[in-house]
């Protein structure tokens, strides 16, 4: 993450998420998958554990993040302010 | 002129049946969460959506000529209200029901962000009713549906969808099924 | 569970106001008359008096577990609400007293509702007046409702408070689950992007406090912030209820000042210091500590751990583990229970907690090498912060504190021995 901080955050609504893997395809730098296939902030992305549901995004990732929000089959994603 | 319209409507109907089948198969594949070797999940999802929209276009190609065709005597009401037609009313009615269902599935698909997941999912399930109705309509209404190639095509489409449906309800359907049942830890790797 | 009340003698209460216990001053199962006799009528305040300012000055924190500042939540609802003259009753703010007490080791809320229901009611009414609230609820387990209904029937000013039967589930007391229960009848936590203050029940500004917090609010409204601060420390003012459970002569609820020494609390409950191996503070979502030298409180210290000399009281549970009992085995049982209490909405919790419970069970049974400890750490990292509510976070906190506090036991277990129970595993 740049010194200026994240451009935005990708909020994951865990009550909706089913780990179908589309967002991890679209945002390979920001997200990996956990043991069960759910999106996981890439190593080093998230400092505090409380932020694990709001993954910081760089400006360059915003376009892909918007696609992820649109394509998420479970409507589990939302872009929030930094 | 009427002959040309008639033929165009029939061919569009056949193409549409193939597109619908493709859409259903891709929808099931998408639901599994599994990518294909050459196609990532996102591409499969977009393909599922675009083939479905193409199926709508071919449905228009299938229905519009019949409205223009004086011989077919189909009017706008017949297109949306089933079982009123003058020619093979039952089989045509099945097609009409399939059209209505398709309209609902596509509209809720396009508006799913506004409607929410519950409505989208509930209506999307109707696809499983729409497909057999559309097939029954094409077999029942088809001018030469009993010809060998037509029967063979119908059997192939049936087998494909039935196989996909059987896979859909099997225990290992989801890409994540094994990992979530406590199977060996899986490294999902970089997508 | 028993509802015995014991109280620490509290010094320094101003004359004319309840000495001794603050919350139980009216005695056991106090009716409205006894309540008024003990606490006096609610005073009429001048125009320049504001409950929000008194709460801010009091430093009261939530007593349900999170320990969030009570006035901040209050002020957030105050800001979010529309002036009453513009809002119909259905658009006004919603106040909820949360007595669900899903934490299995806690019974202080049940004790409070049984003995001092009128304090909780007073707290709700005082805030309702200040916030122009439209709807008031008390949410509690089925066993609490008859006494609460009787208390409400005793007074003419509380007829509009509705009672809600809370399901008996660990996560039913999460504040977003309470709002969900009101809306859908199912007490499931939900993804809250904003605060409940900005849109809770039916999108209305919603204030959910633990019942004990409401009781303290009632007292701050009566006697003011200065009186409240006469007990406790500057960082952790006032008193709090704690449920003392586990290896104790008898399980009791104590009212203790903020910043109390843990060994003092144990002594008040009749527990001999040298008989204690460790104490779980805060309940199943809390932390294991060795009690010696540890202070209960430090409300303002986020994540205040034993290394800082203070431990956050969380849901007010002080659970004693006697010498000769294995802390790892006790923790493994708790994690297994917590895994079973997942609402099964959020994947990392639904699958991660059982995996964590399995790893803790293997550790307790001494099956595995050093990689097992790493696996517990890895699974904790996969679960923490990845849920709509704090159920996974709380579970990870419990596990992490067990690995710290019982670090010696972990080494023994990995070698196939348990030094506490003194045998081979």
Automatic annotation (TrEMBL), chain B:
InterPro entries per UniProt: Fe3_Rdtase_TM_dom (IPR013130)
Record's keyword terms, sorted: Membrane, Transmembrane, Transmembrane helix
Major place of residence: membrane
Highest taxon above the source species: Bacteria
Domain Ferric oxidoreductase positions: 13-134
Bilayer disposition of the protein: Multi-pass membrane protein
Stretches that traverse the bilayer: 6-30, 51-71, 91-111, 123-140, 146-167
Protein name, as recorded: Iron reductase
Species per Swiss-Prot/TrEMBL record: Arthrobacter wenxiniae
